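From the shared-data thread, chain only:
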Amino acid sequence: MIKEVAFTIYAVSDMKKAKEFYEGVLGLVPGTEFNSDQWTEYLIGGAAFALGCAPDMYKPSSDGATIGFEVDDFEATVAKLKEKSVEFQMEPQSFPTCSMCCIFDPDKNKVIIHKRAPGRE
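Structure, as tokens:
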């Protein structure tokens, strides 16, 4: 019945601060259809990653879901995150199938930075 992920939403308390992180630090580009003080969508692959600033509906939490973003160059991305003083929940690690780390956004939502191992793309 389910054919794809339509969107994932992260609750944020300050849209300006969140956009500075997701656009300025992670390099996401907002879509043009939904971009406001309460909702911003970023099209990634075939789905949308959204930020929602509606305290009565969405509450930021480090205990909530975690999104994983696939990157082209894991080492360069980690270096940029450290240069920007991003807080790491899990330092970079390598596994047989991938390399990954987990960081916090300004609201302490967790974000995984991920790179599949060669041959697993």
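The beta strands are 7-11, 30-35, 39-44, 47-52, 67-70, 88-94, 98-104, 110-116.
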